[in-house]
Design a protein that fits this description.
By secondary structure, this protein is of the alpha+beta class. The chain has one domain (3-142). Helices cover 38% and strands 24% of the residues. It has six helices and five strands. It has helices at 3-7, 20-26, 35-50, 53-56, 65-80, 137-142, and strands at 88-91, 97-103, 106-112, 117-124, 127-135. Helix 3 runs antiparallel to helix 5 (65-80).
């Protein structure tokens, strides 16, 4: 598999992959049961959904209801899939939500974007080694 196919979220035949498990594997996701971290992420997103003013008070534009819904779907899927839990969950500048996890010299971010896409970036020793984008709708289909 070439880096270009990984970067574009495509399978070896060159087709866009919409299978979340395949995308997680392509992105180099590490499997490590961390229900507590995912539960905390879910609770944080639910709190933002209930009270977006808490973000506004910190001069942060709250994510839209659709982004919050997508971020909750991703969090629940990641918890169920036993992906490494996030060390941080933060609103993104462009209105999305970013999950960050770390293991050794590898950092991985997953941004739930306003356009219904998720972007996973894997960084090892300060170098981007993969960038994968895929539709959040694939999570709904996978449930």
């Amino acid at each position: 598999m070439t880096i270009s196919s990984i970067d574009q979220g495509k399978n070896p035949s060159g087709q866009l992959s919409t299978n979340p498990s395949a995308i997680a594997t392509l992105a180099g996701a590490s499997y490590f049961p961390d229900d507590f971290a995912w539960q905390k992420a879910i609770e944080r997103i639910e709190a933002w959904a209930r009270s977006p003013r808490t973000l506004e008070e910190e001069d942060i534009s709250p994510p839209s209801p659709s982004v919050l819904k997508d971020a909750l779907a991703f969090s629940r899927w990641a918890k169920k899939s036993r992906l490494r839990g996030p060390i941080a969950v933060t609103p993104a500048v462009a209105g999305g939500i970013v999950f960050e996890s770390r293991q050794g010299k590898t950092t991985q971010t997953c941004e739930i974007q306003c356009n219904g896409m998720a972007e996973i970036i894997t960084i090892q020793a300060h170098r981007v080694v993969s960038r994968v984008e895929w539709p959040i709708s694939a999570l709904r289909a996978a449930r």
